[in-house]
Amino acid sequence: MTDIDKTTTRTTCPYCGVGCGVLATRHGDGTVTVAGDPDHPANFGRLCSKGSALGETLSLEDRLLHPEIAGRRSDWDTALDLVAGKFTEAIDDHGPDSVAFYVSGQILTEDYYVANKLMKGFIGSANIDTNSRLCMASSVAGHRRAFGSDTVPGTYEDLELADLVVLVGSNLAWCHPVLFQRLEAARAVNPAMRIVVIDPRRTATCAIADLHLALKPDTDVALFNGLLSFLVESKSINKNYIKRFTENFHKTLEVSGPCEIGAIAEASGLERQDIALFYKMVARTEKTVTVYSQGVNQSVAGTDKVNAIINTHLATGRIGRPGMGPFSVTGQPNAMGGREVGGLANMLAGHMELGNPHHRRIVQDFWQSPVIADRPGLKAVDLFKAVGAGRIKALWIMATSPVDSLPDADGIAEALKVCPFVVVSEVSRSAGTVPFADVLLPAASWGEKDGTVTNSERRISRQKPFLALPGEARPDWWQMSEMARKMGFGKRFSYRNAAAIFREHAALSGFRNGGTRDFDIGAYKDISDAHYDSLQPFQWPQAARSAAAETRFFADGGFFTDGRKGRFVPVAFQAPRKRERTWPFILNTGRVRDQWHMMTRTAKAPRLMAHIAEPFAEIHPEDAGRLAIAAADIVEVKSQHGSVLVRALVTSRVRRGEIYVPMHWTDRFAARGRVDAVVAPETDPHSGQPGLKFTPVALARADMAWFGFAVLKERPEGIDADYWALAPVDGGYRLECAGRNRADFQAIAVSLGASGEDRIRIEDTVAGLSRQAYWQDDLLQAAFFFSAGPVQVSRQWACGLLAATPGRKDLRAQILAGRAPADRPDCGAIVCSCFQVGCNQITEAALRGADSVAAIGESLQAGTNCGSCRSEIRALLDDITRDTSNDSDIAQAG
Ligand code: SF4
48 alpha carbon to ligand 1 midpoint, in Å? Predict the structure, then answer.
């Protein structure tokens, strides 16, 4: 193991479900730098752009530091007295189901464990759900239907050992970048490896795909049912495995029917030959891994999609062996840990079943609790419907912002307004939930928290503190334990530290288990504080008295159903609902490469904001042409629930009739960018997971009379423009804005904070153009560029003005001219965040002969640090090769 000195702490990245190990080093000047942990088995030293920038996100700016009641500073004792009193009062008056916790895949397993124990074992309700419901609940439901347990059978290594990797609804390159890098590296070693991407969009992941199947949204079940039938008809199934280890095969085949490629092509919108090629690739490749994530899970048919995929692996016996298996990758850093402690409204702790009386008895005996919830609680979407209907009298929201991330987000805000008592545990004062809180509780953040997380391959790693808790911030587990104590349950919540909770969690997993349940880490039930402190990442299961081992599940059966057989699940394809005239487009939502969730952390790192600095809608060129939408116009995307105003990004990456809008922008960074206000609150009937990738919407160009771009030293407040998007840059902010009414540029600039005597201004009223700038003490305060159409100014040059040496007179001429000097050409929109290399530089290098990602790296360094941008560089090179320069389109949004 690599030696580290005492200024460096081994911990885990707080972002995605890859769960990379991080070395965080504190320096004498108070700064922290991070590096990938070369010894961590998830990443072996790699980090993506988000992970690499973690050190830049640790400032206390925007932190909640003290408890508050009704907006006034309070103290922990008073605040928690009030919380415990209000919860107790609601339970006494209206029963245990009148209270609820809504928690998060961001919290640690120990936090989750205590919250779940308090709600299910002591309050006696199962009303605890989590934002992980939005991430992977369909995988949980699909696993439980097929395996009898929520088990991910494989490991990351399987992607490297496979000869065929099928990525379904998974933009691995942007959403699980280090896993993508491992896949890329494995393919470099094994050029025979084939990669298929199944996704309606041509995502960055397609850069390494041998075949991209851009199917119609929500038609995956038709495609995989067809695959199952094809495998049977081509005699590619494993009869021995099916017979010995599974059940329900023939009934499932009856539902999937014969393999009619024509009908599948019709349903999915794919070309027949592409479907046939995909089926043949799977049929002839024993070592096949099918990776799936949000494109599968976030659907009203998500659970059926999961089972349609798993059916094909059960039929071929390609499961639990090296290089084979269905593989769900989670979005959040601790979605898996939450599942392990039962942090979902329909599960019990230790992967036990709420509906199973034997399991309820085990958990209640172990907890020695007065009650145990005996029916499922409210899942996320239904929970907030109950809040809106007045059935929830006291609600505690922890580390998540449902007013930004749940479907019908405006409806969630309305629901919170009518909830009699709302508690919010938060890190960030600007979180969307904060204005709704009766009680605000300051939580510990990454770098301060102490506990464990589980990544997508069942690997438990430590998240360790390397910073002191600021102000009165406290860990979430402590907050819940104190609340339990104040409710009279102190004896069962007297944890001294996170290690004590982990010991209990481990002990429960092994309690009356004997191999009957998949989740067992009983080997750690007596772990000492010191051992916990230095705990190395390990995969479960690790039962007591068994040798530590890295393992896969189900190669030889051993499922967790009643008869220990794997279940084929018949899933009939239901065609997605037809488009209506009023809502002719389908809205798909998701992530961008360098942002995380609602940007409360990633927006603190200017270099991450440089990649894509405003919300956008990807629109197919034919749709754009029909609706007279030009690149960089402002467009309105509207459903019956709400609307957003975003920048048009015209690209053939999306299919005709479909739009893609990222999920990250909130009211803090854009005027109307909260896309979940548009998303319909429809859910999968089995998992309760919302269909975040399929909302019928209308699209129209928003006529703007003026457009503006500004760089400002100070954050502008009360921005009076119909459209705006704000992003931090080094030394200040950048602002995109536009308005519907005739422009008075001087008034607009003043409203955005322009002031002072030292100013320059040039205006062309006929062309509708204005450029202005203001200085104070020779320091540029703001520069504004207005025009009648989208502003044609190099963003990178303009952002650099804020960092210019004071007193530089040449800046004035540059600003009035609206361009950088000729010897400093525009680098274009940033592709490589680490070295701030733009698309224009990459294009020029390519035209000079750098014709590979490696050659671009040698020439410009781009892609040579974290590697997250390599797929975009490859896509740019492909575009140049194909001479389709109109599609080098990140630039349009940046
Ligand atoms: Fe963090 Fe990136 Fe690793 Fe995900 S891939 S855990 S975001 S460093």
Answer: 6
8 A C-beta contact, residue 828 and residue 840:
yes
Q: Are 111 and 477 in contact (CB under 8 A)?
A: yes
pLDDT digits (tens, 9 = 90+) for 691-711: 999 999 999 999 999 999 999
Distance 114 CA to ligand 1 centre (A): 26
pTM of the model: 0.94
Give the atom of ligand 1 at the shortest distance from the alpha carbon of 48: 2
List phi, psi (to 5°) of 326: -80, 140
Query: For residue 561, what is the DSSP state?
Result: S
Q: State the pLDDT at residue 883.
A: 52
Q: Taking residues 401-413, report their average pLDDT.
A: 96
Query: Within 10 A of 625 (CB to CB), how many other CB atoms are there?
Result: 12
What pLDDT, on a 0 to 100 scale, did the predictor assign at position 373?
A: 97
Quick one: how far is CA 848 from the chain centroid? 38
**Residues within a 6 A CB radius of ligand 1:** 13, 15-16, 18-20, 43, 47-48, 50-51, 176-178
Rounded CA-CA distance 359/365 in Å is: 10
**pLDDT > 80? residue 824:** no
pLDDT beyond 70 at 390:
yes
Torsions phi, psi of 290, nearest 5? -110, 110
CA distances from 167 to 97, 654, 848 (A): 40, 17, 34
Tell me: cis bond preceding 825? Omega within 30 of 0 counts.
no
Identify the band that residue 879 occupies on the pLDDT scale cut at 50, 70 and 90.
confident
3-class state of residue 809 by DSSP: coil
In this structure, which residue's CA is closest to atom 2 in ligand 1?
Answer: 48
The per-residue DSSP string of 90-105 comes to HHHHH-GGGEEEEE-T
- From atom 3 of ligand 1, which residue's Cα is the shortest distance away? 20
Report in angstroms the alpha-carbon separations of 503 from 249, 251, 478, 525, 698: 41, 44, 16, 4, 53
Give the tokens for residue 509.
């997993």
Strands (E), 437-482: 439-442, 451-454, 459-463
pLDDT value of position 811: 85
Neighbours of 882 (CB within 10 A): 9
Q: Is 778 helix (H, G, I), strand (E, B) or coil?
A: coil
Q: What is the DSSP letter of 347?
A: B
* pLDDT tens digits, one per residue of 611-652: 999 999 999 999 999 999 999 999 999 999 999 999 999 999
What distance in angstroms lies between residue 18's CA and the mean position of ligand 1's atoms?
Answer: 6
Nearest-atom number in ligand 1 for the CA of 12 is: 6
Predicted pLDDT at 24: 97
Q: What type of residue is 545?
A: R
Helix-, strand-, coil-residue percentages of the chain, each rounded to 5: 35, 20, 45
Of the residues 12, 18, 596, which should be mutated to test ligand 1's pocket, given the most ligand atoms within 8 Å of the CB?
18
* Cα 11 to middle of ligand 1, angstroms: 12
Of 163, 164, 288, 283, the closest CA to residue 234 belongs to 283
Going by the DSSP 8-state scheme, the letter that residue 298 receives in this structure is S
The pLDDT score that the predictor gives to residue 884 is 44
Confidence grade of residue 891 (pLDDT, cut at 50, 70, 90): very low
Distance, in Å, from the CA atom of 406 to the CA atom of 344, rounded to the nearest integer, reads: 16
Gap between the Cα atoms of 177 and 834, Å rounded: 14
51 CA closest ligand 1 atom index = 8
Share of the chain above pLDDT 70, in %: 98
Ligand 1 centre to CA of 729 (Å) is 23
Q: What phi, psi does 558 have (nearest 5°)?
A: 70, 35
pLDDT at position 789: 94
- Could you tell me the pLDDT band of residue 890, with boundaries at 50, 70 and 90? very low
The ligand 1 atom nearest the CA atom of 52? 8
What average pLDDT score do residues 375-384 get? 97
**Spatial separation of the C-alpha atoms in residues 132 and 494, rounded to whole Å:** 27
- Ligand 1 centroid, distance to 16 Cα (angstroms): 5
